[in-house]
Amino acid sequence: LDDRHGEAGALNNLGIALQEVRRFDEAVDAHTRAVTICRELDDRHGEAGALNNLGIALQEVRRFDEAIDAHTRAVTICRELDDRHREGTALDSLGIALREVRRFDEAIDAHTRAVTIFRELDDRHREGKALDNLGAALREVRRFDEAIDAHTQDLAICRELDDRHGEGTALDSLGAALQEVRRFDEAIDAHTRAATIFREFDDRHGEAGALNNLGIALQEMRRFDEAVDAHTRAVTIYRALDDRHREGTALDSLGAALREVGRFRWVRRAWQVIARAFQVFPR
């Protein structure tokens, strides 16, 4: 029908749907075509939205520099149009991409600006998400108390809004921050509750991430058999989802736990030998 506006909108929506089923390369293509059409039509609002979605898809295929470029262009357009809401969304996405390339101070700045915008607009849902992302960036620069505060605020917002899935994300992030200040019992509780919530929603990626984090906290408490179980379940889920990168991360954590289990079994065997020796050769 030569309806270019409709085509761009449909391509953008298609890209979002493809991302949900983790067909990220196809999503990148769909969003790229949407950006091109919007630019041809001088549809600046549409271009900004498609650029932000393109950046998110690019992050999933680990093309972070391109993602940063897409999100930065989206922020610039939104600012020119005085579209505060989309500016906040693009800033939050930009912060995530910056964190992936270890530009943590810039990421903190982007997330902080996003939180401020969403708070001004009274968008509690997106404020919570931006707080969660801010907390993750703060953890990277070892500002752990501030990170715990950000994740705790996010958790309170999710409970206020009865956002159970968001609550799971906030709990998992909070648990990671609590581990950094050696509050391992609280971290184990947070990760366990997060895994349960993700399982209720059949969010396999979320569940696997929470299980892997749970395993790390269990290792710190020397509960190695439980840690092995948690990491094994995470590996199994990632393998089923064909997420090779995260499977590798979970396998590495599993290896560390298995090493500790083996070490303690060796120590137990050594003590058994020593005990028998003292029984045979008493003082």
What does this structure look like?
The chain starts with a helix and ends with a helix. It is 86% helix and 0% strand. By secondary structure, the protein is an all-alpha fold. The chain has helices spanning 4-20, 24-40, 44-60, 64-81, 84-100, 104-120, 124-140, 144-160, 164-180, 184-200, 204-220, 224-240, 244-280. It contains 13 helices and no strands. The model has no long low-confidence stretch (mean pLDDT 93). The radius of gyration is 23 Å and the shape is elongated.
* Overall body shape: elongated
Uncertain segments: none
Helix content: over 70%
Our estimate of the beta-strand percent is under 5%
The sequence of SSEs as H and E is HHHHHHHHHHHHH
Number of helices: 13
Blueprint of the fold:
Blueprint: H1 4-20, H2 24-40, H3 44-60, H4 64-81, H5 84-100, H6 104-120, H7 124-140, H8 144-160, H9 164-180, H10 184-200, H11 204-220, H12 224-240, H13 244-280
Helix pairs in contact: 1-2, 1-3, 2-3, 3-4, 3-5, 4-5, 5-6, 5-7, 6-7, 7-8, 7-9, 8-9, 9-10, 9-11, 10-11, 11-12, 11-13, 12-13
